[in-house]
Amino acid sequence: MIATQYVWSFGGADLLAGLDTVGMLGAVAMVAVALTYMLVLACAAHILTGRRKRAGQGDRSPRPLQHPVGKPLQIVVLMPCLNEAAVIGPSVARLLEDPNPALHVLVIDDGSDDTTSEIVSAIADPRVALLRRDPPNARQGKGEALNHAVEIIRERYRDIDPEYVIVGVVDADGHLDPTAWEVVRGAFRDQTVGAVQLGVRISNRRASLLARMQDIEFVTFTSIFQQGRRRMRSVGMGGNAQFVRLAALNALGRSPWTRSLTEDFDLGIRLNGTGWVNEFRGDAAVHQEGVTSLRRLIRQRTRWFQGNLQARSLLGFIARRLRGRARADTLWQVLSPYLLLAGSLLVISFLLMLALCVINVIRGVPQQWSWVPGTYLLAFGPSYLYALVYWLYEPDEGAGPVRCAAWCHLFVLYGLLAGVFGWRALAREFLGRSGWAKTAREAEHGSVPEVIAQEAQP
């Protein structure tokens, strides 16, 4: 009996050692792949060539549209709303600061039970219109609201070539840079461009550390990756500050937007399969409110993660309609949520091992600490790249490289929340739960227009 126990004990120790080795190699491989992917896109975007360089300046000769006299680009901004009485008036007013008569705003009130519609109806500018959606048709998802609006646009502009009609989507809390309209109109002078996505910044990043993490996320992952994807022809669309030719939307059928929780993600993938070019312009941005409550952040990001899981339905479309680098990168985008779920298991394993080491230290058991430097580099090594990118991308923040490095160490820890979002989203998907309430607006920290104005100064 004693001999048997010894054999099993010996075998168990070998098994645990083997699992530990496999886990470590798996963690190294996953971090290496993710970091390599980011480096490839960063090099493709040429983002590290100068402190003041802005992305999106164009890397190919545009093929300009020949605008006939009296036939300028018609821009219709769709602003989906649900109980946005607190912000809708100033938001529409900011859009109308551009005096161009070819700019129109269509506010979509998707069943609000506050005074959103009344506020919009009271706006005297003839360029503003209201689409009121009432139950039972209302609150069926952002995609359904946008599809309803695009039907109205098709009818209103039926006598104009749809290549000259641009449909934009701006959230009710979105604040565009003063140069945004010039950037958008300039991008669509290229007749091959079917859609343009502007950059995204978090307007209250200076008031909340959690909001700062979201801003770093958008800069290092969203904006930087989008810049690299311009070379791969795999630029995606975001839910805020997206602009699409009506002709490109028509190529997707009667209902361009899906019922997915991330209808913007689906739209970008499907547009890339139409022959039109998706463009990203980082030289102008939309500033949106960041979530400062961890509870609300988990709720919001769970919704986004679940929407990305739902994009698995597009795998066949990607295989059939996309080619080359665009296909490979888009497959990575669709499958990366599942990689994150697998990676979260490695994180749990590491945390358990760390807890065991702490317990042993408390008990006075001697420990080997040679693994600490390697583990630190594995976990926090990428943070130095994130810090460099963030510092070079926005030097006007007034933060030096040391502070950016500290922020990005915290950002690595913030990234661990993806495991919480992911498993919660997977559970909801498994249970067939896809309904969501709108994320509540938070009190604004200072004047967002003032922040934008400060950033616009040379």
UniProtKB/TrEMBL annotation:
Main localization category: membrane
Listed PANTHER family: CELLULOSE SYNTHASE CATALYTIC SUBUNIT A [UDP-FORMING]
Cellular component GO terms, alphabetical: membrane
Membrane-spanning parts: 24-48, 338-362, 374-393, 405-426
Gene Ontology molecular function, alphabetical: glycosyltransferase activity
Family annotation (InterPro entries): Glycosyltr_2/OpgH_subfam, Nucleotide-diphossugar_trans
Source species: Actinomyces ruminicola
Name this polypeptide is given: Glycosyltransferase, catalytic subunit of cellulose synthase and poly-beta-1,6-N-acetylglucosamine synthase
A Pfam family assignment: Glyco_tranf_2_3
Source taxon at top rank: Bacteria
Keywords of the record: Glycosyltransferase, Membrane, Transferase, Transmembrane, Transmembrane helix
UniProt subcellular location: Membrane
Topological type in the membrane: Multi-pass membrane protein
